[in-house]
Write a structure and sequence with these properties.
Shape: globular
Order of helices and strands: HHEEEEEHH
Strand order of the largest sheet: 1-2-3-4-5
Distance between the termini: 32 Å
Structural class: alpha+beta
């Protein structure tokens, strides 16, 4: 995928959100899409997948990502650490079917 394709996916997700407040919150967190190779713990040793970071919540050190691999395509929206020692793709409990679900399970939702 390319950054423009990811931007289109994000915009599509935003059109599905009915709450103006929720939509505005996600828009404040958006960053220019960037692709990061993140470790995948459930397959071949040292496997990584491209995860597109689309939003960040710096105060909780979290990022919102889109990935077609790993838990995608069923749950392509993930909540990942931005930095630190846990930069893998995490467990299935932090991957969602929509960007809105990802936001609602993040610390950004409570702020």
């Amino acid at each position: 995928m390319t950054a423009p394709e990811i931007l289109t996916l994000v915009e599509t997700e935003l059109t599905r959100i009915k709450s103006p407040r929720t939509n505005a919150l996600i828009r404040r967190l958006l960053v220019p899409p960037r692709c990061e190779q993140r470790p995948w713990d459930y397959g071949e040793p040292n496997a990584t997948y491209p995860c597109w970071i689309v939003a960040e919540h710096p105060s909780s050190n979290t990022a919102f990502a889109y990935c077609e691999y790993g838990f995608g395509p069923r749950c392509p929206w993930g909540l990942l650490w931005r930095s630190g020692k846990h930069l893998n793709m995490g467990m299935d409990s932090s991957w969602y079917t929509s960007l809105e679900e990802c936001l609602r399970d993040s610390r950004a939702w409570g702020n």
